[in-house]
Task: structure prediction
Amino acid sequence: MAIERTFSMIKPDATKRNLTGAITKVFEDNGLRVVASKRVWMSKREAEGFYAVHKDRPFFGELVEGMTSGPTVVQVLEGEGAILKNREIMGATNPAQAAEGTIRKQFALSIGENSVHGSDAPETAAEEIAYWFSATEIVG
Ligand code: ADP
Ligand code: MG
Result:
């Protein structure tokens, strides 16, 4: 499989509990490299734009509120098959359904406050990376 890049976020529910290092260690232990990272407190407009695909879903307001409630660590992760690998490491959206050993099983509080985001396909990975990073901020 090819070396890929994917976009990841350590969400406010996790940064508030001081889990940035613990979650990043799970990525590194699974062979993903952090090739870009910054801490942002996203605006309502940024959160609404990032999650625009969900704008008609009943949980959209709650999602934007959660994502603007504290700092988020936005990252680019690189590695063999990074997009699918990161989705596996994260676990299911609902932590009650997440497999043992996944980040969401270990750390998530609820389906809304589920600690991490990860791109779900090559196209969304490219779009999401470009939403938060310029090319010179990514150093492999
Ligand atoms: P994922 O983050 O696993 O790709 P989705 O793209 O379906 O999941 O949803 C984006 C985010 O919206 C989720 O990570 C979660 O924070 C929130 N979310 C999804 N479904 C619900 C729900 N039923 N209730 C509250 N929040 C939700
Ligand atoms: Mg998603």
